[in-house]
Specification:
The complex is a heterodimer of chains A (about 325) and B (about 120).
Chain A (H helix, E strand, L loop, with lengths): L4 H20 L17 H78 L5 H29 L8 E3 L1 H18 L3 E6 L6 E3 L1 H18 L7 E9 L2 E8 L29 H11 L3 E5 L6 E8 L10
Parallel strand pairs in A: 2-4
Antiparallel strand pairs in A: 1-3, 4-5, 5-7, 6-7
Helix pairs in contact in A: 1-2, 2-3, 2-4, 2-5, 4-5, 5-6
Chain B lengths: L1 E5 L3 H13 L3 E5 L2 H10 L6 E5 L7 H10 L6 E5 L2 H9 L6 E4 L4 H8 L1
Parallel strand pairs in B: 1-2, 1-3, 3-4, 4-5
Classes of the chains: A alpha+beta (about 325), B alpha/beta (about 120).
Chain lengths: ~325, ~120
């Protein structure tokens, strides 16, 4: 028995509904055929046409989304590589100062060892004990420097957060750079507040920020006099603040809004990656903090690290 | 022989001074380039030899040597340094120094340089 027109329309509507369900389930690979031309079914064909266009748009969006995710993943991997490259550049810059810093305790160990070997028969227990004590303390001094270098060179992108004393981070950064700063004749003043609360942070990243600022300050003071570097830490409302102030050449107004841009540098070609401040800025943003350039009276620059305390007493994140 | 020993690392300065004294040398010491310059320019004593570190906070060893030569002080200078780059810089400086030893060095090397 031939189907009535109502039955035919109902069948076609069922077909359309089935197609809509298949679209919703993610099957975008099919298109609906138009029904036979019929003056009573133009509306259905219009719906089919619209659904077919929707299927095409959805498929294009899925492809774009997959490409977006791949690109995002590549960007993250590139970011990680750039961060490591910038860190290696910092390590290279520190190498000269660190080599001197390690050779000093090695020289002391050498001298006391030789004294002991040459004069073992004549030395009394007290003299021998004193020499051995000096050797032990100098070995620990060298080991501390090497430990700091190893800790700094670890990949900080995957680092977990811990509750850390900001003053400890300042101390670690100065252990790695202090020799270089002093050898350039820079006078260092440390004004750190005691009893600051711990903050939840990636220690390696914040140390890298501080080391970048210290090395930049050193470069800024290469040809200026006096050479005064001041590091201060304090709490301000809900933030821990670390400021690095120098008496160097300063930052001119025309580049103030560029200094945090990736690859921007005022150093000669081959002397700087232009990534230090950019990466430092991003590290602090990741901590919901900030890195700012502050105006100061007179010659030089103040860079200000701001870290929120809000996670200090909560659960560790990341 | 009158020797002035200059090093900002107090343990190194003190040990070398004592060691050289035990070897029969007459030693004075300074813990910075500027202190060394003060002893050289203000003391009545004429030193036969200066043994000095290079990398020091206030007045580095190369600058001290240049200042000596600019003031017609021809006292021989032996440099000590822990930096290979600084050694190369000293070699390229055109300044006349009579010896260079790299830290960490054996005490016998120091005696050999002096002699």
């Amino acid at each position: 028995m031939p189907k009535s027109s109502e039955e035919k329309i109902a069948e076609k509507i069922d077909t359309i509904i089935d197609f809509i369900y298949s679209l919703a389930s993610g099957d975008l690979s099919h298109q609906l055929q138009r029904f036979d031309e019929d003056s009573n079914e133009n509306d259905l064909d219009a719906i089919i046409e619209g659904l077919n266009m929707l299927a095409e748009e959805l498929e294009a969006t899925m492809v774009s989304r997959d490409a977006y995710h791949r690109t995002l993943q590549e960007l993250k991997e590139t970011q990680s590589q750039l961060i490591q490259a910038a860190k290696l550049a910092s390590l290279g810059e520190m190498a000269t100062g660190v080599a001197h810093e390690i050779n000093q305790p090695l020289q002391i160990v050498m001298m006391h060892s030789e004294k002991g070997l040459e004069n073992l028969e004549e030395m009394n227990r007290e003299e021998l004990g004193e020499s051995l004590g000096v050797i032990k303390s100098q070995v620990k001094r060298a080991a501390t420097i090497i430990w700091h270098l190893k800790a700094f060179s670890r990949n900080s992108v995957t680092e977990k957060r811990d509750a850390i004393s900001i003053n400890k981070i300042v101390e670690n950064a100065l252990t790695l750079t202090g020799s270089q700063l002093e050898n350039q004749g820079i006078h260092i003043t440390i004004e750190i507040a005691e009893d600051l609360p711990s903050i939840s942070c990636k220690q390696n990243q914040i140390e890298q920020v501080l080391i970048n600022l210290l090395l930049n300050a050193k470069d800024a003071m290469k040809s200026t006099s006096p050479s005064q570097l001041t590091i201060r830490s304090f709490q301000e409302d809900a933030f821990l603040i670390v400021e690095v102030e120098d008496t160097g050449t300063g930052v001119s107004a025309d580049i103030e809004n560029k200094i945090f841009d990736p690859f921007f540098t005022t150093k000669d070609i081959g002397k700087g990656t232009g990534l230090g401040l950019s990466i430092s800025y991003n590290f602090l943003q990741d901590h919901h903090g900030n890195l700012k350039l502050r105006k100061k009276q007179g010659q030089g620059t103040i860079f200000r690290i701001e870290l929120p305390l809000k996670e200090a007493h909560g659960n560790l994140s990341d | 022989m009158e020797i002035l020993v200059i090093d900002d690392e107090i343990e190194i300065c003190r040990f070398i001074s004592r060691y050289l004294t035990s070897k029969g040398y007459s030693i004075e010491s300074a813990l910075s380039g500027e202190e060394g310059w003060a002893k050289l320019s203000q003391s009545q004593k004429n030193f036969d030899l200066i043994i000095t570190d290079i990398k020091m906070p206030d007045l580095d060893g190369l600058s001290l040597l240049k200042r000596l030569r600019d003031h017609d002080n021809l006292t021989p200078v032996i440099f000590m340094t822990g930096h290979i780059e600084v050694k190369e810089a000293a070699d390229d400086s055109g300044l006349d120094f009579c010896g260079m030893i790299l830290k960490p060095f054996e005490l016998k090397q120091l005696i050999d340089e002096i002699e």
